Amino acid sequence: MHYDPILAWQSMPDLLAGTATTFAVLLPVLVLGLMLALPIALARLETGPRAKAAAGYIAFFRGVPSLVLLYLVYSGLPQLSIVRDTFLWTFFSNAYFCAWVGLTLTHSGYMAEIIRGGLAAVPTGVIEASTALGLTPRQTLFRLRLPMAARYVLKAYQNELLIMVKSTSAVSAITLVDLTAAANTVFDYTYDPFTPLVTAAAIYWCIVNLMRTGFTLADRKLNRHLART
Amino acid sequence: MNAIVQIPSTADAARRAAGLQPAISVNRLNKFYGGFHALRDIDFQVAQGEIVVLCGPSGSGKSSLIRCINHLERHDSGSIHVNGMELTRKASDVARVRRQLGMVFQSFNLFPHMTVLDNCTFALRRALRMPAAQAEALAREYLAKVNVANQADKYPAGLSGGQQQRVAIARALCLKPSIMLFDEPTSALDPESVGSVLRIMEELAATGITMVCVTHEMGFARRVAHRCVFMENGAIVEDAHSAEFFRNPRSDRLKGFLAQVL
């Protein structure tokens, strides 16, 4: 078993195409997951039925394996005639769409909990100060609580994001050829498992570390008020 | 040290319109926290330009009272009028009343991720939609008045407690309230910082602004307050001109309290 640089070079176009698929799955999931998580996190902080519903959502989608969710969305939902025989089929017959839905549900469950934690960490007194200064609850939420929460959750969000990058490989189960699947295909054709998979791992490593660098820069900028002077 | 000069404020118009109306008028106010009766039938008036100190043991309801006045706590019965405007539960009424009031907290409650300057311009820009340049000029003016002009670009964590509390006072004054509420403004400070904050409060008192201070600083109360109010168990026990309050306390409970704190 040895690393074959020539095979690595030759399979690079396939691996990069797989990387593109990985991003095509990942980026919409990150955006949609965040958009969905925010109202759920806010509902979770209330008291009453909405809080219960939000808690149920979080418990469910954090509990169900994302691979199972992907199978359910891609193979399970089309068993229902309301999905198969209506306009919905246009969407659910598309593997990308199913990947976005499945992973967004999982991601939003985790993100809602991260955002809730960040909002809960904003000191009550700071919110009261904003209120006493005449800002409406909505202004206080968007101008103060969320910006402060974003600073608190940066580390937790970084963790979740890096895990998501690698979790996207589950989409190969519903026919999408992402980076992992592309590497595996090279292995199928060449009987060399080592070279394509190590190359794929290196590409993942680059993606993850680029993101980590981005987070370090964001942290330096957003949390400069914590820097020792 | 710069003397604080009250700039003509939008609240001044309200004050003139209010005429001889009391700045604050609280009638038969009751407040419960669950089963705990925090404020019992409070009747409390503050005249325009009056400096009132609220004192009493912890848990006596002094903080609850001033927090009800700007609706940080919701009262359960009774009425509150500020410059003649009734504080109902309607958001527009609450906003109108809060516009009259500035609030300073025990723990400063500065926005930690904003510079001192941004702390002061935040409400001007967001709540009053004031242009940034105008807001900044106003903020710098008030920061100078509380002697922290040179700290404007720092973050709150880089300031001493006393400096932070003075920034909090400037932040409240920027909105030109006609009434200032202080909730134990010096209780979280070291003795040296206490002096710097009390000096600013004394200068502020001299400008004729109406002030209600919850404080344990009896020296400040004696020197600066026109009236002192002693509360215990959610009720007002004694309410007197400050000279009278210290010289001839009527109730045994106030005598006991003064003996302990003086």
Molecular structure report:
The complex is a heterodimer of chains A (229) and B (262). With 229 residues, chain A is an all-alpha fold. In chain A, 79% of the residues lie in helices and 0% in strands. Chain A has helices at residues 5-10, 12-44, 49-63, 66-76, 81-84, 88-92, 95-121, 124-132, 137-152, 154-167, 179-190, 194-222. The longest helix of chain A is centred in the first third of the chain and has 33 residues, at 12-44. The N and C termini of chain A lie far apart (53 Å). The mean pLDDT of chain A is 94. With 262 residues, chain B is of the alpha/beta class. Chain B has a domain at 23-111 and 178-261: Rossmann fold. Helix content of chain B is 39%, strand content 23%. In chain B, strands 6-7-8-3-9-10 form a six-stranded mixed β-sheet, sandwiched between helices. Chain B has a four-stranded antiparallel β-sheet with strand order 2-1-4-5, with helices on one face. The radius of gyration of chain B is 18 Å and the shape is globular. Chains A and B meet through α8 and α9 of A and α3, β6, α4 and α6 of B.
Give a concise summary.
The complex is a heterodimer of chains A (229) and B (262). Chain A has 229 residues and is mainly alpha-helical.
Mean pLDDT of chain B: 91
CATH topology of chain A: MetI-like fold
Main beta-sheet annotation of chain A: none
Shape of chain B: globular
- Tell me the fraction of residues in β-strands of chain B, as a range: 15-25%
What is the β-strand count of chain B? Answer: 10
C-alpha Rg of chain A (nearest Å): 21 Å
- Interface with most residues: A-B, 24 and 31 residues
Q: What is the spatial order of strands in the main beta sheet of chain B?
A: 6-7-8-3-9-10
CATH homology-level superfamily of the domain at 23-111 and 178-261 in chain B: P-loop containing nucleotide triphosphate hydrolases
Helix tally of chain B equals 10
Q: Tell me the radius of gyration of chain B.
A: 18 Å
Largest sheet of chain B: 6 strands, mixed
SS content category of chain B: alpha/beta
Task: Please tell me the total number of domains of chain A.
Answer: 1
Total strands of chain A: the figure is 0
